[in-house]
Give the backbone structure.
Amino acid sequence: MHKTLFIACAFVVMGAAAAADAIRLPEPDKTGGLSLAQALAQRSSSREFADVAVSRQDIADLLWATAGVNRPDGKRVHPVAMGRQDMTVYVFTKDGAYRYDAPSHTLEPMPNVSGDNRAAAGSQPFVASAAINLVYVQDMSFWTKSDQERAAGANFGYAHAGAMMQNAYLFAATKGWAAVVRAFFDEAVLKQALGLSDTQRVRLTQSIGPEQ
């Protein structure tokens, strides 16, 4: 009994420690900015990044615009097929790598990554200088009923990632930042660095930040 109580207490302490490590982001700024038409007119891809840090408020605003919760029922700013929230955004900055938890609007540090590992997010040289690199990850465990569902689920994953990266593009346009979506990355490196499970798949990556 004492052993069981000790184990239970240990899990509570571990859970509290993990929660304490999470970085609570500022509330996103949902006012002002360009109109949708203006943002669409200015949306473009650029690979010229200034190697500078951005504020935590900027990171909070970007992540909310990309994958945040915009309704009391927990639904997201991007469309979700069949209500299956199978996508997670991971974030590489100069300070480290993080998992964005949309419901709590927090960043959870990845224990396998410390310091500046932005270059791990892609194979092109400019990746290492972009202020933020986003990694769009789908969990295929949401799609397990049949081979047909798994095939559809993979397609939905690319659609989800596409909607999220377009949100990020439009946010970058409102800031006058550079942004480019990328499919050149080493998934094995990312899976190890981010501690991804066997059912998680990297669908797209994206570099975003002030332009050089």
